[in-house]
Amino acid sequence: EACTDHRKQVTRVNSVEEVAIGRVLRSSTTGFACGTRSHEMELPSFGAFVMTHHSNGSNVDVIGLIYGIHIDDDPLVRQLILANNINASTIRDQRENRMVPVEMSIVNVGYRINGDSFHNLPPKPPISLDTVYMCDDHCVRSFTQKFDFFRLVLNTSEVPNEELMAAAIKHAASARPIREQRDFLVTAGRRLAQMLSHDLPRLNHLLRLIKP
Hints:
The chain has 212 residues and is an alpha+beta fold. Helices cover 34% and strands 28% of the residues. A hairpin with a 3-residue loop joins strand 2 and strand 3.
């Protein structure tokens, strides 16, 4: 089993409820992998902000973006695929009751110490089995007040840079009140224009992806 049962696990930190989505499988300074189960995939999505709280008592919260979601199979899944007819109850049982593992790949884009955000690689990576949480709207708004983390995303070779950057910007916009979302997207686009003025094709592609 990739992780312990955390479907109902909710932690209250600084009076904010944080929903657990999995546990750290392996990690490095640049990113980590999170394990969960397939029927617990309602919240995580490509480009979503997640965070870990070090279980060793450290006050460093690592913040990252989901850039890959991989669902493993097992022998039963292979058999079911070859079957002529699969009824709905069998599919539901496979998804809800069997331990079909899901692995999410996350790139680190910053960290928090005592609520202050820093847009550079964390001083140390998460530890195996640390709980991974979805960042709530307040956390996302606070972390994305500045755009210094853009450079980390755009310069990371193992991720789909433009698509991940655009998805993260949209997640950050959706964490804000509707009346503020367009202005946020415009401001983010201007920051991208400053960073990518030397690469107009890449800039134009990104601006099309985040266009309000």
